[in-house]
Design a protein that fits this description.
The complex is a heterodimer of chains A (349) and B (311). Chain A is α+β, with helices and mostly antiparallel strands. Chain A has helices spanning 45-53, 95-100, 110-123, 139-151, 169-186, 197-203, 221-226, 231-236, and strands spanning 3-14, 19-30, 34-38, 60-65, 68-69, 80-83, 157-161, 189-194, 206-211, 214-219, 243-247, 250-254, 260-261, 268-282, 285-293, 299-305, 318-324, 329-332, 347-348. The longest helix of chain A is centred in the middle third of the chain and has 18 residues, at 169-186. Chain B has 14 helices and no strands. The chains are: A alpha+beta (349), B mainly alpha (311). Chain A binds chain B through residues 53-55, 74-76, 80-82, 84-86, 88, 90-92, 101-102, 104-106, 149, 153, and chain B through 203, 205-206, 208-216, 219, 223-224, 227-228, 311.
Chain lengths: 349, 311
């Protein structure tokens, strides 16, 4: 597969160099790929997207689109399309005029422009709204108009900046599904910015996790979830986050769903004593809060027991829990990055 | 129980002190409205009805006794060619000034929102004409346009563009042009500030979206910025029109209506007739001609403001 968008050694400084919004990021996005930039607010993900779009110029490093360096070029020649968080529809124009607008610089005959716009509108199921003004549309409809406007020019890449965050929670799940199916149908390379890990896990072919301007990990959602590159990724992704227990200068990590009563742990396991404080019942699962001992230093952790685990767990009591040894991850206590496994006493279940 | 009893009156007392006059919205509304209402009645409504009354009277500066003369003042005003000249001038003056004010105001507004070094100085200088009293700035312009010592003439002469003096205020067309130029110079800052507010109110997202959608400077200007700020442009234009339409200071100081009454506008002609000439009846008739046009302008302003609220 060929690479559509590439950034190399990208650095973006603000405030005369006091703030590094993007700190030496390298990233290659393949043709047709759905890449999600994920990170907390202020991590530089939106700045990275805007730099690809040409709305910001990099302090150093290169941005390549479709094989050519586009540093310094204005957005209009980059053939990118962007969907803003606010959708940024032109309020004084009708839906049709909004969708036609990106085609105007292309010197097409008026007829052809309109038929292209109608095609895009039909694809997104908004062809009956063409005469409306944006303020007469619902949030979901506005999002589709913004997508149609992005689609109509057949861009090299879609840049989506938190397009679902203005929708209410209920609509968000269906819009997410729609967005993914839409992209699969048109097959256009997409860079999607979000701070919502559920969106990232659900939409991305690959996820790029960013923090403080640095790219922390790039990989398939399962890989990022199962094999986090450092403690930031481990605790940022997953809800509740990965448990970390200090032991001999190392942090031992395991996901809450892998901390189970011993009878439910198959294969080689490490045993711990779990002092339960309280229990939350969330969508069929039990989230159990407490302290573990026996794995390393005593530390607060969370266990997530699926509905299929019916063993009684009582707050205020100690229970025998265990973690499959293959599910343990190890991080340097100082650096926070992944390290080689250390020896833990294991038993066969 | 004893404590409760002791507490009760104190709570009441607190309630009493808290509810002051300032908490009573109905009362406050009246207090705040009164100055405006008084101002409008004393300085707008009374003079307006006085003007209507005087228009049908033979009141002069020398003989203020009121005698009804019907439409005599109107027919005398209409028979005077200077009135028609002044009416025409008012429209020409207003129309040309308004177009120039809007165009220059828009350009200046875009300069004002741009980010560059020393922008506070530029903003300050730009607003200077608006903050200077008209009479003062007009006198400055009077010197600049002086028939013999005009520095503008001097520069043009030395550059080699003209051989003789221009006599800016001595030839009818040039005098009218000068009046318009001074007016535009004076009102452009106000228009620019109004339009700057419009430009600043456009969300950044929209401008960025249009840049990504491939729009260059001109397309962005004509398809995004101007339509989105149109209500404010209209307000700026109408303010400019009203100020121009009713203004007499620039004409009065600069040309005094001359040469040979060629630059009179309604306001200055009304002043010359009514106050200078003492014929208050005729002055009132001329001034009344401003009313229907100002009313139309006011309605247009209110409409565009309403349109602004619905966008």
């Amino acid at each position: 597969m060929s690479v559509t968008v590439e950034v190399s050694n990208l650095i973006k400084q603000f405030d005369g160099g006091h703030v590094r919004a993007i700190d030496d990021v390298n990233l290659a996005i393949e043709e047709g790929e759905y890449l999600v930039l994920l990170g907390p607010s202020g991590c530089g993900k939106t700045t990275l997207l805007r730099t690809i779009a040409g709305l910001e110029q990099p302090t150093s490093g290169d941005v390549l689109i479709a094989g050519s360096v586009v540093n310094g070029l204005p957005p209009r020649v980059r053939k990118v399309a962007m969907v803003f968080q606010s959708y940024a529809l032109y309020p004084h124009k009708t839906v049709l005029a909004n969708i036609v607008f990106p085609l105007k610089p292309e010197k097409l005959p008026k007829q052809e422009r309109e038929s292209k716009a109608r095609w895009a509108a039909e694809l997104l199921g908004i062809d009956q709204l063409l005469d409306r003004k944006p303020r007469q549309l619902s949030g979901g409809e506005r999002q589709r108009v913004a997508l149609a406007r992005a689609l109509v020019r057949a861009p090299h890449v879609f840049l989506l900046d938190e397009p679902l965050s203005n929708l209410d929670a209920k609509l968000r799940a269906s819009a997410r599904d729609e967005l993914k199916r839409f992209q699969q149908r048109v097959g256009t390379t997409t860079v999607y910015v979000t701070h919502d890990q559920a969106e990232a896990m659900g939409l991305g072919d690959r996820i790029a996790v960013m923090d403080k301007g640095k790219l922390r990990q790039l990989g398939h959602p399962v890989e990022v979830y199962d094999d986090p590159a450092d403690t930031f990724v481990a605790t940022f992704i997953g809800s509740p986050p990965m448990n970390l227990v200090p032991r001999d200068g190392t942090l031992v990590g395991f996901r809450p769903e892998h901390l189970l009563p011993v009878s439910h742990v198959t294969g080689e396991r490490v045993d711990v004593t779990f002092h339960v404080d309280r229990i939350e019942h969330l969508s069929g699962d039990r989230h159990v809060y407490g302290t573990v001992s026996g794995l390393g230093e005593e530390n607060r952790v969370i266990a997530r027991l699926p509905a299929t685990v019916t063993d009684p767990v009582t707050p205020g009591e100690a229970h025998a829990f265990g973690v499959n040894i293959d599910r343990l991850r190890f991080f340097g206590a100082e650096s926070g990055t992944r390290t080689e496994p250390i020896r833990v006493d294991a038993k066969h279940g | 129980m004893a404590e409760l009893v002791r507490d009760a009156p104190r709570r009441q007392e607190l309630d009493g002190t808290r509810r002051r006059l300032a908490d009573r919205d109905g009362f406050l509304a009246w207090i705040f409205l009164v100055p405006t209402v008084v101002y409008i009645i004393v300085l707008v409504a009374i003079p307006f009805f006085l003007a209507i009354a005087f228009a049908f009277s033979d009141v002069t500066a020398g003989n203020p006794s009121y005698d009804w003369v019907g439409l005599e003042n109107f027919s005398r005003v209409f028979d005077d060619p200077v009135f028609w000249q002044a009416l025409r001038n008012t429209f020409v003056f207003t129309a040309i000034s308004m177009v120039l004010i809007v165009v220059f105001g828009k350009v200046l507004a875009m300069v004002l929102v741009a980010d560059f070094r020393g922008k506070w100085l530029v903003r300050f200088l730009v607003l200077l004409p608006w903050t200077t009293p008209v009479a003062l700035s007009s006198i400055t312009w009077l010197w600049l346009l002086h028939s013999i010592y005009s520095p503008i003439d001097w520069v043009l002469r030395n550059v080699g563009l003209i051989e003789d003096n221009s006599y800016f205020l001595g030839k009818p067309a040039l005098a009218m042009g000068s009046v318009i130029a001074v007016h535009v110079w004076r009102l452009v800052p106000l228009a620019a500030v109004i339009m700057m507010v419009g430009i600043l109110s456009i969300p950044d997202d929209l401008i960025e979206a249009s840049r990504i959608d491939g729009a260059g400077f001109w397309r962005r200007l004509f398809e995004i910025t101007i339509p989105l700020t149109f209500p404010l442009i209209a307000v700026a234009a109408l303010f400019g029109a009203i100020f121009t339409f009713t203004d007499m200071a620039v004409v009065y100081v600069l040309t005094g209506g001359g040469p040979t009454n060629s630059t009179h506008v309604l306001a200055s002609w009304s002043f010359v007739r009514g106050i200078g000439g003492g014929d208050i009846g005729q002055g009132a008739v001329i001034a009344l001609f401003l009313f229907p046009l100002l009313l139309a302008a006011a309605i247009l302003i209110l409409r565009s403001v309403r349109k602004m609220e619905t966008i």
